[in-house]
Write a structure and sequence with these properties.
Helix content: 25-40%
CATH topology: Maf protein
Distance between the termini: 10 Å
Number of helices: 6
Radius of gyration: 17 Å
Number of domains: 1
Order of helices and strands: EHEHHEEHEEEEHH
Structural class: alpha+beta
Strand content: 15-25%
Amino acid sequence: MQLLIATHNPAKKKELTEGLLAVLPDCNITSLDDLGITRDPEETGKTFEENACLKATYYAAQSGLTTLADDGGILIDALNGEPGVLSKRWLGRAATDQELIDYCLKRMMGVPPEKRTARFTVVLCVVDPVTKNMTTVTESIEGFIAETSSKHWSPGFCYRAVFIVKQFNKYFDDLTQQEHEQINHRLIALRRLAKKLL
């Protein structure tokens, strides 16, 4: 199978590629950079699923390849689900990871511990450009927003710096490799998606 991973986020591309090859080792993976595709569709969906499908459909048409796209982010209960689909665009597309981290902590200032619940959600969508068949998978991970950011965090995944994973009561970025593989919602979704594709 040849599969296009449709993202310009280097961290996300790396995680998706490694996750896919772990379950589909014979998969021939191509990136947008490999194909010289630089344009992005306008993310007009009101849900993660709508945006994931919109992106997968757009890039499948651009490339002529079976395409995997995802959309996801963090939903904070005390902020009525913000930033949600605007997770990467909460402060506009030009905002840095640090600016998003600082803004999140500012918005949550004064919120008591019991009301700091949040979750990461991701939707993966694969589109076949010929048949137009569409396959989606959704996964979430529960936790809460910390009062300060972790001391080290992953570029491209800024909200992990302020997210405490409920299952381990640890910052997302402080998880061991084994813990990370056990709870990472994107990797879990990839495993489920691989079974559907097979």
